[in-house]
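User: Just a sanity check before I run the rest of the batch. Below are the structure tokens for the first item. I only need the designed sequence back.
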């Protein structure tokens, strides 16, 4: 639910700032390119360290923690830049650190086959 509201606020701020369709396309293409590259770098460089240092629970908790910090930041610094950082950070954490933990079904169900 928090991510949906964050997405709405982000897109509302962008629409307030950029009214031209071409400017909107340019902004969103830049935004999603930056977020995609940052997500890749976090997966590559920080995912193993996060699980080793924080454990699984701490790594999974990084998503609500990033949303909470972003919300506090938005209270004190409202505007497009804060919405950019909040939405980008949430997307990056959701797409990198939150997905590295396997689901419970994948870890508890094992299939063995007998060799013929």
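Assistant: Here's the designed sequence for the first item:
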């Amino acid at each position: 639910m928090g991510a949906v509201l964050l997405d709405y606020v982000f897109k509302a701020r962008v629409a307030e700032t950029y009214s031209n369709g071409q400017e909107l396309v340019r902004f969103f293409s830049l935004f999603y390119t930056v977020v995609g590259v940052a997500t890749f770098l976090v997966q590559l460089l920080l995912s193993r360290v996060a699980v080793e240092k924080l454990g699984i629970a701490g790594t999974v908790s990084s998503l609500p923690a990033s949303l909470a910090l972003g919300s506090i930041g938005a209270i004190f610094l409202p505007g497009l830049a804060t919405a950019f950082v909040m939405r980008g950070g949430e997307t990056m954490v959701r797409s990198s650190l939150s997905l590295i933990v396997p689901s419970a079904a994948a870890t508890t169900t094992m299939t063995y086959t007998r060799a013929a």
